[in-house]
Amino acid sequence: MGARSSSFLGKGFGVRTESSSPGLFGAQKIQVAAHPTSALPANLFVDLAKKVKPGVVNISTTKLVKGGGRVFRHFSPFREKDPSRDFFGEDFFDRFFGDNPQKDQVQRSLGSGFIVDKEGYIITNNHVIEGASEIRVRLSTEKEFEAEVVGRDPKTDLALIKIKSWSELPVLDLGDSDKLEIGEWVMAIGNPFGLSQTVTVGIVSAKGRVIGSGPYDDFIQTDASINPGNSGGPLFNLQGEVMGINTAIVDRGQGIGFAIPINTAKEVVIQLKKKGKVTRGGIGVYVQKMTPDLAKSFGLEDNKGALVADVIPGGAAETGGVKRGDIILRFDGKGIHEMNELPRMVAATPVGKEVEIEVLREGKPLKLNLKVGELKDEAAPAAAEKAKLELGMSVQEITPEIARQLRLGDLQGVVVGQVEAGSVADEAGIQRGDVIREINGQAIRKLSDYQGFLAKLKKDELVRLLVRRGDRNLYLTLRAAKPQ
User: Fold this and answer.
1) Residue 398: DSSP 8-state
2) Which of 32, 169, 395, 477 is disulfide-compatible with 414, CB 3.0–4.6 A?
3) What's this model's pTM, rounded to 2 decimal places?
4) Which fold has domain 53-66+104-278?
5) Which fold has domain 380-479?
6) Choosing from 82, 109, 112, 157, which is the catalytic residue?
7) Mind listing the pLDDT tens digit for each residue in 331-342?
8) Residue 410 is among the residues annotated as catalytic for this protein
């Protein structure tokens, strides 16, 4: 906020370098004028809370969680020495493949949201409403409504829902999160632990945080108290404008919460309202962070830019001449200071737009022209569902991240994500995390190979699998029970 909050802070706040006494080692000291106790109006937060609370809602959801198989149901000679599970634990597999519950469960969750349109549109987090069979919204007046999902965007963890109300709804103003300053006062309102309309205050601790939650991380960090149930609720500045959507906390940390910048949400929500989904630009590259050591190996003095680790065949980058080892320094006229900026820039670029990029190749600058394509979602979810139906297990392509985490190197195949209890896969001893390398002697290099096998599968056919479990190979057999 900076100058925008000066009327609240009063005069006399500032930094001056004049000093009669030297600092440590004789350096000139920076003196900060002390705040008079009357700088903040006594009722500032009281008035702010009264103004914005009516636009904040509580969200409760109900979902039915289907049962799945047990990971270690059957004896395995390698069970005790499985390094992937010993090292990574089951949380790693849950992260990529979801939970694997034993029986159907009714799950109820609480979250928050806020009204952005008089027609009843409400912004919240995707994880608050994902998979819900019923979504209920309660206003500050205690009125309750059933809500419908307009659209979801898992990549940014944002969702747009809608309620129908015959009375006029209070709408919150959306600010400009690019103007938010570190050290600025903010207020969070939400439904932590079911305690509705809870108000907490703090400051902006940092901006542009990358916490590993997705490809477009750009979080506001705050020390305003945020707890489970605050998810989806607004983070306000002192003018009562929404500057962020409270989203994440550090499990073992105190005073560390994260919010999605409202400017990110604006772009997403507009698309969700129009078409229920988000279309993003894509150029077909895998990039990685430029570390100081990598920069040194390329003969560079700094580690700015995004290092191209791989180029997807047939993509815009390959067509435009991008090569593995290129360092992308600028995209469509904008400089790239660190790797995470590039995915956000590309995603926000309209599909079909021609852009110029600047790369460094073998120490020499080079300009290339690309036509931005559409970022496609992976086909793994649909294929995994098909596999689960036919063999009682779900599988996924080995992504670079999975390969890195499981230390698979260049191993080819498909990874088992879930095993359904009592299925033929379960009875055969297949386990979560197994890598299927061969079926009936035929190599399985990618997901399409596995799908091709499924298409030819006959009922009661005996199938021989070669799987990699930990650091060893293992043959297993199963008899297919394909639905008719």
Assistant:
1) -
2) 395
3) 0.62
4) Thrombin, subunit H (2.40.10)
5) Pdz3 Domain (2.30.42)
6) 157
7) 999 999 888 889
8) no
